[in-house]
Write a structure and sequence with these properties.
By secondary structure, the chain is of the alpha/beta class. The chain is about 55% helix and about 10% strand. The chain has three domains: about 1-85, Arginyl tRNA synthetase N-terminal domain (Gyrase A, domain 2, 2-Layer Sandwich); about 115-265 and about 330-375, Rossmann fold (3-Layer(aba) Sandwich); about 390-573, Isoleucyl-tRNA Synthetase, Domain 1 (Orthogonal Bundle), CATH 1.10.730. The protein has helices at about 1-15, 25, 45-50, 55-65, 85-100, 100-105, 130-145, 165-175, 185-205, 210-225, 230-255, 270-280, 315-325, 345-355, 390-405, 415-430, 440-445, 450-470, 490-500, 500-510, 515-535, 540-565; strands at about 40, 70-75, 80-85, 115, 150-160, 260-265, 285, 290-295, 305, 335-340, 365-370, 370-375, 375-380, 435-440. A five-stranded parallel beta sheet has the order 6-5-4-10-11, with helices on both faces. The chain binds one RNA strand of 77 nucleotides through strand 9, helix 13, helix 14, helix 15 and helix 18.
RNA sequence: GCGGGCGUAGCUCAAUUGGAUAGAGCACCUGACUACGGAUCAGGAGGUUGGGGGUUCGAGUCCUCCCGCCCGUACCA
């Protein structure tokens, strides 16, 4: 309403000069609240009107008058700055939140059916901090795209088969007397996998013969898995289930859910069929004894789809899986949340799907993100520096409980868990996808500063105000014009809250949840300033009403924004 | 070699997609009504945005050439 009023006012004074200008796009908030709520830059008019931008700004401002939602118009240098009527803006936001139109404004004009594949954990390997970034990003995207009105299928894809699994089982077979721990069995299996990998390397170091012997005995295990040899199959099924149970436990704790699960172990036959079909159709060709997808027309290197020994690869499974996504799930868009080291793989996958005749291949999207690092440097499961998830969880929880104890509050386990999750997810999400995340447990759980706890704290403070305000106030009532509402701290917060729908859209466009995470943090900063500068309960009735309404709006928007990040609010902490 | 990513305060990150004096947090220094929750707020100090050139009213952002780090580059996943 305010913005459209500004556009209308500009269009009126500009006349034909506005013909080629996208006024809505040019209008943007000034860097500081005291400069107004929206600004119009006059640079594009300089050529048309053949005058200096500041002069044009002054002329335009003089030609416009305040009225309706516009409280004031004035020129500031080369900009025309519009000031909103704060009470009207507050009323607009509050009513929009009450009748659902504000959140409704987040919705896309073109809803579609989209599948988001993320997490993709490997069984028989450690689930560690690094994997948490993928889960955080993927889950946030699922939530955001749903808020945008899309029909989202959240998909997981378990790497539960293949030579790596065989390695782990091979090692266990040789150390059968060792018992798995009660907690962290995935990590325990991961250790076995690592030990097996080291054993292979050691053997190889001794010579080709020794290396081949070890690899052959591992391959025997794989063959046993493929052919259903009883002992191997029993061990495989049991250990696989341990991993799936532990993954379920992790997702449960994090509040992450999937609509469908895919398993690598189920794609072998479909993969073979994709390759055979492709050969028959001339999509794939033979090369050096292997089957490839020639992507020269797409300026990409060839992609191997079947090894010369006849076995399939990662690409083969992914092609088969993509086929299911299109044919069985009928998705219009397919999103893959996978680390940036696989960028080439996905370019090749999408190009190959295009060659196979899937028009929607062009709407496939690889959401790539950089690695998680430790303050000491790269994580290495080899060196044991990767922090297994179960260990991470207890360490973060301990840090949060310690802080609660220090603050003298009774330790509320439910709240402690929510705060721990907020710290972890916010830490993973507030950095842009293209940059690596440095996981520093001290930093992330630091009670002071830019953390998930800070976000929850602002909500706890709002809840505190509301508890003391009681039920007596009718927030639906209008704020009188002379309430005194509208100082900088109030308008800064109000402006920020209003921008929420655009932020949600931007997250979809960029597939980068850090946009939203930073938005909430910035909002929490603005709320804290409001909180310290603007007493609510002690204010005069009219002003108190306005501030209570603003606090309520803040609560609604923050709660919604955090939920899109997969973070739950707490009442007290 | 080729392709992609990154480089912003001592450290960790932003910057509304080309706009006003490049902003936050940590760490350091100084303050805040016996408090609607101090897990907070205000202020100070800290910058040649890796470097050079270019595009234009205007560049951290776009083009170009260097430098540094990371990733990828058909029979691993």
């Amino acid at each position: 309403m305010f913005k459209t009023a500004c556009i209308a006012a500009l269009r009126e004074v500009l006349g034909d000069d506005a013909a080629d200008l996208d006024l809505g796009a040019l209008l943007s908030p000034p860097p500081k609240v005291e400069m107004g709520d929206l600004a119009f830059p006059c640079f594009p008019l300089a050529k048309i009107r053949r005058a200096a931008p500041p002069k044009i700004a002054a002329e335009l401002a003089a030609a416009m008058s305040a009225g309706g939602p516009i409280a004031e118009v004035k020129a500031l240098g080369p900009y025309v700055n519009f000031f909103a009527d704060p009470a009207a803006m507050l009323a607009g936001l509050h009513d929009g939140l009450a009748d659902g139109s504000f959140v409704g404004a987040c919705r896309s004009e073109a809803p579609k059916r989209v599948m988001i594949e993320f997490s993709q954990p490997n069984t028989h390997k450690v689930f560690h901090v690094g994997h948490l970034r993928n889960v955080s990003v993927g889950d946030a995207l699922v939530r955001v795209l749903r808020a945008r009105g899309h029909d989202v299928v959240a998909a997981n894809y378990y790497g539960d088969f293949g030579i790596d699994v065989a390695k782990c089982l091979w090692w266990l077979g040789r150390h059968a007397q060792e018992e798995p721990p009660a907690e962290g069995r995935t990590a325990w299996l991961g250790d076995a996998y690592t030990a097996a990998t080291l054993a292979v390397e050691e053997a190889e170091a001794k010579g080709k013969e020794a290396g081949d012997a070890v690899k052959a005995s591992i391959r025997e295990v794989l063959t046993g898995m493929e052919e259903g040899e009883p002992e191997i199959t029993a061990r495989y099924r049991e250990t696989r289930q341990w991993c799936l149970d532990e993954f379920a436990d992790i997702y449960g704790w994090l509040g992450v859910t999937f609509d469908t699960d895919f398993f690598e172990s189920e794609l072998e036959a479909a993969g073979n069929k994709v390759v055979d079909d492709g050969l028959a159709e001339g999509v794939f060709v033979e090369s050096q004894g292997a089957i490839i997808s020639d992507l020269e027309s797409d300026s990409l290197p060839v992609a191997l789809v079947r090894k010369s020994d006849g076995s399939s690869l990662y690409m083969t499974w992914d092609l088969a899986l993509a086929r299911r996504k299109f044919d069985e799930f009928n998705v219009e868009q397919s999103i893959y949340v996978v680390g940036s080291e696989q960028t080439l793989h996905f370019k090749q996958l999408f190009a190959t799907l295009g060659k196979m005749g899937y028009e929607r291949a062009k709407d496939c999207r690889h959401v790539s993100y950089e690695l998680v690092m430790l303050p000491e440097g790269k994580m290495s499961s080899r060196k044991g520096t990767a922090i297994p998830f179960h260990q991470l969880r207890t360490r973060v929880l301990d840090a949060i409980r310690a802080k609660m104890a220090e603050a003298g509050s009774a330790i509320d386990e439910a709240a402690a868990n929510k705060i721990a999750i907020a710290c972890l997810k916010y830490g993973m999400l507030h950095v842009g996808n293209t940059r690596s995340v440095i996981f520093d447990i001290e930093d992330w759980t630091n009670p002071e500063g830019d953390t998930g706890a800070y976000l929850l704290y602002s909500l706890a403070r709002i809840a505190g105000i509301q508890r003391k305000a009681g039920e007596g106030v009718d927030l639906g009532a209008d704020v009188p014009a002379d309430s005194g509402f509208g100082v900088e701290a109030e308008r800064g917060l109000l402006n920020h809250l209003t921008a929420f729908p655009q932020i949600v859209k931007r997250v979809e466009d960029t597939c980068d949840p850090s946009v939203l995470a930073n938005y909430v943090y910035e909002g929490a900063k603005r709320f804290s300033r409001f909180y310290s500068e603007c007493p609510v309960l002690k204010a005069e009735p009219a002003l108190k009403l306005a501030r209570l309404k603003l606090a309520a709006c803040t609560q609604r928007v923050f709660t919604e924004a955090l939920s899109l990040l997969g973070i739950d609010a707490v009442e007290s902490m």
